[in-house]
Amino acid sequence: MATCPHCKGHLTDGHRCPRRRGFVVAESIAYTFAGGLAGWLLLMAFDPHSQTNMDLVAIVAGSVVAIAITRLLRG
Ligand SMILES: [Zn+2]
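Above: query sequence and zinc ion SMILES. Below: predicted holo structure tokens.
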């Protein structure tokens, strides 16, 4: 059995290297911030003068959606 040059695991068909924990955490944080920013920008697009005071709600909602999507994509 060949071994993977990156992670030294068994190089089976469709092998994927296990990702390092620190990287996964950093990635999750990045997605959370990106989602929050996206939610806030979306709110700005629909409510440019912040009439609804929904900034925090939009940021939290965007973060939650981003986390949910990454969970789904990761399986
Ligand atoms: Zn590997």
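The mean pLDDT is 88.
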